[in-house]
Each structure stands twice: as structure tokens, then as C-alpha cells.
Here is the input.
Amino acid sequence: MGRCRLARLVILAVAARAVLGAVSPAAMAADGVGLWGRTDDKVVTYWGFGVMVFFVLLVIVLSLIQIRLEGRKERLRQELERLRPPAAE
Here is the structure.
């Protein structure tokens, strides 16, 4: 790993730490009142469902992208084999 990449990684880690440090007081507010507002069971449940839906959709979208790229790779391979002259044995 080069020095430039290591320096970027350290800067990114420090920046992430600073952002999390600045946001944490709101997340640790008293009586469950944070950035969202009053947190009760309904909010937590909907947030959990939202996270599950996000990851399901993420897997579906990434799978569709992979299927499309695999088909493209296969078509390109077949085209190259068609254009390549047969090897003399």
C-alpha cells in the first residue's frame, strides 16, 4: 500500500470519527428524543422493516446487474470464438 493511499485512509478515518462525534449528542439525547423525534416501538419496528426492504432490494438489483453482465460477457466470448480462426491441430 502506497503512502498516498495510506494517508487518504487515515484522513478518511479521522473525518468519519469527527462526523460521528458531532452527531452522537443528538443520537444520545434524553428520553429517546434524537434526530428523528420521540422513539417508540412503532418507529423502531418501521426502521427495522425499512432496513430489511433495503437489503432485499439491494440484493435483487445487484443480482440483476450481475446477470446482465454475465450475459454480455458470454455473448462477447462467443463472438470472439466465432471470429477466431480454428487452431491447426
Remarks:
- Residues 16 and 51 are 22 Å apart (CA to CA).
